[in-house]
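Q: What structure does this chain adopt?
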Amino acid sequence: MNNSRTLVIALITVIAGVLGCSETVAPDRSMAPADAVPISMLNPCGDTKVVTLWAGQYIDAGSVTISNDADYLSIEIVTANGWYLTESHAAVARTLETLPQTGSGNPKVGHFDLATEHDPPVTSFTYEISIADYGYLLGDTLVLAVHAAVERMEEGSGVVQEETAWAEGPGFPGSSWATYLHYTIQECTLTPPICAVTVTYPNGGERICLGGSDVITWEWAGDACGGIGATVMIELLQYGTVCQEITPGAPNWGEYDWENIFGCSLDSTGYSIQVTDLESGASDVSDAPFMLVICGGGE
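A:
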């Protein structure tokens, strides 16, 4: 009696664990390439390709997304509508003829390079292969086949349906309904990091007192900027030419106390401020000239 009760409790625990598997389980990469990397490292280039994962030929069981960065090709399988992955397989080749298949043109899933059993079942899984190690190049058009064994679960009932699933595409030449798809490895356009520095004061039209003090202010934005804690160089220009180094390296707090102000000539006009981010070299100059004048009635 005690043994029967223990068995019942164990079965309930297993079923509850399966039904609670709504989150992605960490991939078992034991059968994946040794150089596989976490999907979090992938920054897709160009356009990704998304197709339906068809279960039993006509049932929408999720999606398959193909993408790449400069180094890796990614095949991401995500289930939906109560379906879970119990097995997944993927093959990549240059031509349809070189995908593993029988003489009659049906795929040989057991010969696919990428294969994983998902125990417990999962709602998503990603394969990643090194583009260089497989001998592919950016711009190459490849042929892929993505197969899965899926099961649909209902709360309170457990597994209610099991099917074979394939990523949407044209059919293999054989008699089965198995499908394949094409994907062109996307070219990667690198966007260089930017830094934008903007002088906000003095920025044109001000009358600043010689011998006094004032506050020079600026703003910065962009990943390439040194940011707070880095340094900026601040220079005084007259008629567009640097005539004085106010400071060779001030902390990048967005403001600087300009003390004991003096000009570069007897001419009080045509002055501007230039702030340069020393990390990136980005700089900005006052939008319009300001004046350095004698204050206190002596002008």
